[in-house]
Amino acid sequence: MPDLHALIITHTHERIANTLLGLRAQTIGPATITVACDSDDERIEPEIQRAADALNRPIILSLRKRSEIACRSQNRNNAVRALLEQGVKETDYLYFIDGDCIPSPTACKAHREALGTHELSLGWAVRLSEEQTEELTERQVLAGKTNEMLSNEQHKMCVRAHFQTRKRIFLRSLKLTKPHKPGILSGNFGVRLHDFRTVNGFDESFTGWGMEDDDLARRLYMIGVRPKSVMNTAVVYHQYHPTEEPLNWKDSPNAHRLSEPCEAHCPSGIKNPAPQNEMRVIQVVPN
Q: What was the pLDDT predicted at 28?
């Protein structure tokens, strides 16, 4: 059976520990863990080392000095580039997680099972409040108890999201949806490596905030990728922090690009990266 590889994307040492510790609580863990950091801050390596010691397993760490304009697409592609250096199989699965999110204990299992029958698995994120985030402990994360903090409304949101996405998947089969729907939540989705490489990964011409995940979704759908919702079983808990996310996605400078024509294979992606500062890949092994 193909392996599932966890790819964690971040730009800071903050909050990343809980994301990694959440992988220790998985009912079925990933074959490998890769962290791609859009920074070379000296505080990152010690935090990844601490996590590697706690998990008692190696972590692949990709670092590069951040450019003036953030490129999340490139950082996500860098995670895959670092993983490919390890010689993974073309038939393997990728599981993307943002470094401010904690995966629920069944997340890896749900994505892996979904990718066994479909080419794309769509997870959901519950936003923790500032109070919930402050009260959260590493012991709770390691025990897989983060969901016990959720309100009834937060639990219901997962059910509604799962229902809505299944509805959009059905409408897609009737060709009644927008080209990028159902959308990808970049901080919690799975995709087969072969298909990700076929479309050349994330489009690195998307810079700043937003829409790079919607763009990836529409290009994957162009090659016939079939989505499956696991929003009720593959949940991540987004730790509170200030964000540059606009209140309305239409206010994103990249939003207009979704109405422009594109090819399935983006011109600047995993195979031919846009210019960037030197990427450094490190194997962080437990002490």
A: 96
> Is the pLDDT reported for residue 251 higher than 80?
no
**What would be the CATH architecture of the domain defined by 4-284?**
Alpha-Beta Complex (3.90)
Task: Let me know: does 156 contact 231? Beta carbons within 8 Å.
Answer: no
Instruction: Give DSSP secondary structure letters for 198-252.
Output: HTTSS-TT--SSS-HHHHHHHHHHHTT--EEE-TTTSEEEEPP------SSGGGS
Q: Give me the pLDDT at residue 227, please.
A: 98
- In 25-144, which residue ranges form alpha helices assigned H by DSSP? 44-55, 72-84, 107-115, 130-135, 138-142
Binning pLDDT at 50, 70 and 90, where does residue 65 land? confident
Domain ranges of the chain: 4-284
Residue 54 has pLDDT above 90, yes or no: yes
Question: What are the structure tokens assigned to 262, written together?
Answer: 């594109």
